[in-house]
Amino acid sequence: MKTAVLQLPGLNRDRDMLAALTLISGQAPQTVWQTETSIDDDVDLIVIPGGFSYGDYLRSGAIAARMPVIKAVIEKAKKGTRVIGVCNGFQILVETGILPGALMRNASLKFVCRQVKLEVATTQSAFTEGYSKGQVIDCPVAHHDGNYFADPETLADLKDQDRIAFRYAEGTNPNGSIDDIAGILSENRNVLGMMPHPENLIEAAHGGDDGRRLFEGALNLISA
Amino acid sequence: MTINNTYPITEDLIASHGLAPDGYQLILDLIGREPTYTELGIFSAMWNEHCSYKSSKKWLRTLPTTGDRVIHGPGENAGVVDIGDGECVVFKMESHNHPSYIEPYQGAATGVGGILRDVFTMGARPVAAMNALRFGDVSHEKTKHLVSGVVSGVGGYGNSFGVPTVGGEVEFDARYNGNCLVNAFAAGIAKTDGIFLCKAEGVGLPVVYLGAKTGRDGVGGATMASAEFDETIDEKRPTVQVGDPFTEKCLLEACLELMQTGAVIAIQDMGAAGLTCSAVEMGAQGDLGVELYLDDVPVREERMTAYEMMLSESQERMLMVLDPSKEEIAKEIFVKWGLDFAIVGKTTDDLRFRVFHQNEEVANLPIKELGDQAPEYDRPWREPGLYSPLPADQVQEPEDYGATLMSILASPNQSSRRWVWEQYDTLIQGNSLQIPGGDAGVIRVDGHATKALAFSSDVTPHYCEADAYEGGKQAVAECWRNITATGALPLASTDNLNFGNPERPEIMGQFVKAIEGIGDACRALDFPIVSGNVSLYNETFGEAILPTPTIAGVGQLDDWANMAKIAGANEGEVVMLIGCDGSHLGQTVYMRDILGETAGPPPEVDLTAERYNGDFVRSAINNGQVSSCHDISQGGLALALAEMCMAGGYGMEIDLTDVQMPLHGLLFGEDQARYVVTIEEKMAQFIANNAADAGIQFRVLGKVGGDKLVVKDVLELDVAEMKSAHENWFPDYMA
C-alpha cells in the first residue's frame, strides 16, 4: 500500500499521523504539499490530518476544501482510493460535499480534549473491519467544531445505508453531535471522516492501542 | 506625502513615556542633544522596567545559573540544557499579566505566542507548554470573565499552534482582584549543535524582516506593562496585541526549515518593543551597528509613522541576519509558507543604531549604551516582618475531620482543574505520558525509545507573603519535588517573578528576600535558573498582588516505563509516608480556608531533608519499587491521600492511632519535603529498611483497598462522593 499524508499550512497533527502510519506500516508515507494539483496514481490511501488549516479563519475546513490539491483528493476518492479525514480532515471532507452534513461549534462552545468511548457502528468498511460490530473502544478527541449535524433525510440515508462508522458511547458525546455520530463513511464506503484521533492511541506510550486496527484495516494489514 | 513624526519634547511627553527625570537626564548626557520623538520612543522601549530589568538586575545576578548540564543560561531568548544524545531542552517562562487583565483572550493568547517564539527562535521545536494563572476572588465581578477569556486565549493559541499543554496552575485570591497573572511556559527540543543566538556577526550583512506585517497594535505595550493600573485602564486596550497562531505555526516551520540551510547568522524574535528591541539586541550583543530602512518594512496599515513602526508589538515577526549568499533560498522558504520576507537594514561597524524613514534619519543613537546601559537602580528595601512560631496545639481543631476534608477538596483553590485543562490540547504530537491532574506533566522525547521529560510549575504566594525568603525556597522545592514524584531527575528551572511596585521598600524587600530564598534552594537542589522574566508594578490603586515568584522546572526520565503517577496502586498495597509527620499549620489551607485566618509563619523548607527524601523517592521509583507517588503540598497529608484515591478510583485504610501528635497537624499540616508512595506488600519492608539505613523519616500509613478513604477513628469518605465534589466545583462556578 502506498500512503500519502496531506500537508496544508495550519494542519498540526500531520506529524502525529506520519509517526502513527510509519509505526504501523513500517514505511514513511509520502507527503503532499498544498500547492500540488494531483496525487500520484499509485497512492491507495490518502490521509488528511487534523489541525487548523489556513487558521480556520473562515468556517473550519472551508478554505482548504477549495484548494486544488483537495479537488485532486476528491477525484481519487470517487475512483475508489481510500481516504481518511481526521478532525480538521473530516471538516474539510464535509466542506467538499463528499461526506454529508456539517460540523458545528461544540455544544459547550469550548474546545474539548479528553478520552471518549466510541462504539463501532459498522464493520462494513476497510477502516472498521478489524473491529467487531458494537465493540466499544477508547479514543481521544481534541476539537472546537465537532458537533455533527445532518438534516433528517440525510440522517435517514446514513442509517439506511449503514454509513455511520463510529458513535460516541456510554454518554461520552463531547460536542452535542446528532445521534452521537463521531465518524461517517462516503456512499462508496472508501472515505472515512471522523472527529476523534485514532492516531493518538496506537501504542503503550499512549496508554492504549485501540486506534491501531483502524489503520491496519485501511492499510490491508489485517489477515483474514 | 510625508507623515508628521515630529513633536516637541515636553515634560509631559517624557513622563508619558515612563521616563523619570533622572532617566531623561541620562539620555541627554549620552547623546549630547535633545532626542527626537522617535528616539524618545526608542529609549522608552529599551529602558522601561519590562525590557531593562533596571530594578531587578542587581538581585538577579545573585542567582545560580550554571551547572554541568547548562549550555546557555539567562541572557538568551531561553535557557538551554543538555539532555544527552546530542540534544537539548530549550525553555523559559514569561508573564503577560498586564495585557491579560485589559483584554484576557488576546492578552493570554499572545503571551503563549511570545513564549513559543522565544523557544523556536533558538532552533528548538516546541514540545510542551504550561500556564500558571492567578485570578481575583471568585466572588469578584471580573473573575469569571477573566478566567473564561484567559483560558480560551491560552487554548486558542496553543491548540492551533500545535503544542501540548501538559501542566500549570490556577489559583484565586482577592489580592489578584486588580491584576491577574498569566505566566506562560514553553519548552522545545533542539540539536545541541543547532542552537541559534541573537548575537549578530559580520559587517554589511542584510538584516531581514520575517513573518507577519507590522500594524499599530501594541504600540507602547512594554511601557504599559511597566506601570501600575489606575482608572484609565480601559483606555489601554489598544496597547494589547492581537495574536495569529496560524501565522506563528507557519513561522515555526519556515524558521526551522531555514535554519537547516545554514543561512541564519543571528535571529531574534520581535517581542516586547518589537523592531526596536530586536534590532538593538542583535547589534549590541554582536558589537555591531545596525541601520534600518523603515520604508521597506512590510506594513498592514497606511501612513504609519517611524515612531509607530519602531514601537509596534505586532505579533509573529522575526528579525534575522542572513548569509547573503543564501538570500534566494531563504526567500523561497518564506514565500512557500506565505510569509513576508524583506531586507530592512544592514549591519555596520560604527556601533550606531540608525533609523531612516522617507529620506530622513529619524534616529541615530549609540547601540551599546541603548542595549546595555539602561539606568540600573539599587532600590531601597525593607526587611519584611515575620510571624512568630505557631505550634499545632495552639490552633483550633476541626469538629468533623471528614467534613473538613470534603470542604477543602471542593474549595475554589483545591478542586479539580479539569474544566480548565480540557480546553487545552494535551495530547497533540502523540508524546504525552502524563497530562495535567498529577504531579508533573511528562512527554517522551521523539526518536528515543525510553527518554522522557517532566515539567512542573509552582509557587505558594501566601507563604511568600508571610515570609518571602521561605516562600522563595518553597516554590523551588515544590517544583523540584513534583518533578521528582514522577521519577525524573530535576535538571534546571526558569523563574517568573511577579511583584508589586518596586519603588515601595516593602515590595522591594519581598523581592530581595524571595530571590535569596530561590537562590539558596536552587543551589542546594542543583536546580539552576537558566532563564526567566520579571513582572513588577502588579498593583492597582496602590494595592499589590501577593508576591508570586513562579518557578517552572524541567526534569529528565531515562526510562519512562518506570515512571510513577499519582494513580496506579493495587489493592492491598502498603501506603507509606516519606518524610516527617505533619505538624505545621501556619499559613496552610486549613488555616486560611477552614479557620479563615492567616496566622503563623509558613512551613520552613529543610533543604537537606528535601534533597535526601527526594533522592530516596526517585531512586525507589527508578528501581520499579513504587506503584504510585504523590507529593504532599497544600492541604497536607489528608488532601494528598484524597487526591490519590480520586485519581486511582480506589480507597485507602489509614491508621494513625498510635501517633502521639495533634491530629489536625498530622492531617492538614503542610510540612515540606514529603511524599506519599504505594508499595507492593512484599517490597514494603525492604523500602522501610532502606529508608531507616539512609536516615530518611518515614511512616507506614495503611493499605490500599475498598472504595472509601478511611482514617481509623477520624474520618470515612466515599471516594466517588469525594470525586464528584472535587470535579464539580469549577464547572458549577463557571456555569
Would you mind describing this structure in some detail?
The complex is a heterodimer of chains A (224) and B (735). Helix content of chain A is 21%, strand content 25%. Chain A has five helices and eleven strands. Chain A has helices spanning 14-25, 68-78, 88-96, 152-160, 212-218, and strands spanning 3-7, 30-33, 45-48, 82-86, 102-104, 112-120, 136-143, 147-149, 164-168, 181-185, 191-194. In chain A, strand 10 (181-185) and strand 11 (191-194) form a beta hairpin. Chain A is globular, with a radius of gyration of 16 Å. In chain B, the strands form five sheets. Chain B has a seven-stranded mixed β-sheet with strand order 8-10-7-11-9-12-13. The longest helix of chain B is centred in the C-terminal third of the chain and has 20 residues, at 505-524. Chain B is globular, with a radius of gyration of 26 Å. Chain B starts with 10 loop residues before the first helix and ends with a helix. Helices cover 35% and strands 23% of the residues of chain B. Chains A and B meet through helix 1 and strand 6 of A and helix 8 and helix 10 of B.
Task: Provide key terms for this protein.
heterodimer, A: 224 residues, alpha/beta, Rossmann fold, nine-stranded mixed β-sheet, two-stranded antiparallel ribbon, 5 helices, 11 strands, B: 735 residues, alpha+beta, seven-stranded mixed β-sheet, globular
Give a quick precis of the structure:
Chain A is of the alpha/beta class. Helices cover 21% and strands 25% of the residues of chain A.
